[in-house]
Amino acid sequence: MEQVLENIYRIEIPLPKNPLKALYSYLVVGDKRNLLIDTGFNHPECEKAMRNALDAIGISMDDTDIFLTHLHADHTGLTSKLMTPTTKVYIEPGEGRTVNAFLTHAYWAEVLKFQDYMGMPKNVQLERNIHPAHKYCNDFAIDFVSIQEGDVLTVGKYRFEAVDLAGHTPGQLGLWDAAQGLLISGDHILAKITPNIGLWDFKTDYLGLFMDNLRKVRNMPVKILLSAHRQPVENVNQRIDELLKHHENRLNEACEILMTGEKCVYDVSREMKWDYGGGDFEAFPAMQKWFAAMEVFAHLEHLYRTGRVLRKVKKEVYIYYIPSVKKIIWASLKE
């Protein structure tokens, strides 16, 4: 735990057996009410770290509200353990519904069906009890307070405006204090690692949405960015440009792979280059294979929606391909 700005503390919450290693939760100390931003997993190590930090700062949860940037369990799962009868828990309404849906069988039946859409073999499919959103979710459904872009939370000297940073999840929000040039960004912009962009449904181009919101932040006068994982982001615009370039490279790589023929999401994932686990997708643990393949799914859907590839559905499996005429154009552009 360390003080990073006046009346703002960064609390490091360990994420046991998770590649992210830790979550940065932020506590904003106010005159009458405090605001805790994100919580960690519903796990004893997370709870111990959080309570030790709150005790060290001298903060009671009776005087503290919670703002959740987005639905992922490493940001939301400990909420039910921390909240008291006086705690307001703010979250974007769609994200809140999903957090509570983690407790239902119907949600998992729908979500895990995406593995069939990706053409993932049954023998490597992820089971619900392995997914962190199931393992580390809240103990009970929470009566959230809805917050949306433009809504304001005032805590001490800070006047935070909720800002739409969707893409990583359908409704991720950040907190923006224009007077301080301060953006608390959740998982929208991370140093060293790229936020995972998955496919949540077939209604929205989530990769396109993520990149649009990166460009939106690039046009904001951000002086200080407080992100949720790993090292601080020193140069915000430079990091945004790196993230945009990374995804354009991945889109081009996916097109290169499809030049050899039509493929399902799982097949494209196997041929992609990966920095994780020695680069061998087939050797990834089931959880990381899920996240990697879902990100490929989002990239392929973006290519489809922007007209760079075509798709068809065969026995529930989504298959992507480049027609012959486009292959000729693509090859000539490369030359």
What key phrases describe this protein's structure?
335 residues; alpha/beta; 36% helix; globular
Instruction: Determine the N-to-C terminus distance.
Output: 53 Å
Element string (H = helix, E = strand): EEEEHEHHEHHHHEEEEEHEHEHHEEH
Structural class: alpha/beta
Tally of helical segments: 12
* Helical content (DSSP H or I, runs of 4+): 25-40%
Low-confidence stretches: none
The tally of strands reads 15
Spatial strand order of the main sheet: 1-2-3-4-5-6-7
Mean pLDDT: 95
Largest sheet: 7 strands, mixed
Described by the principal axes of the CA atoms, the overall outline is globular
Indicate the proportion of strand residues.
Answer: 15-25%
Radius of gyration over all CA atoms, rounded: 21 Å
Short précis:
With 335 residues, this protein is an alpha/beta fold. The chain has helices spanning 44-57, 73-76, 79-82, 93-101, 105-112, 114-117, 132-135, 206-218, 236-258, 265-271, 286-305, 324-334, and strands at 2-5, 8-14, 22-28, 34-37, 64-67, 89-91, 145-146, 152-155, 158-164, 173-177, 182-186, 224-227, 263-264, 310-314, 317-321.
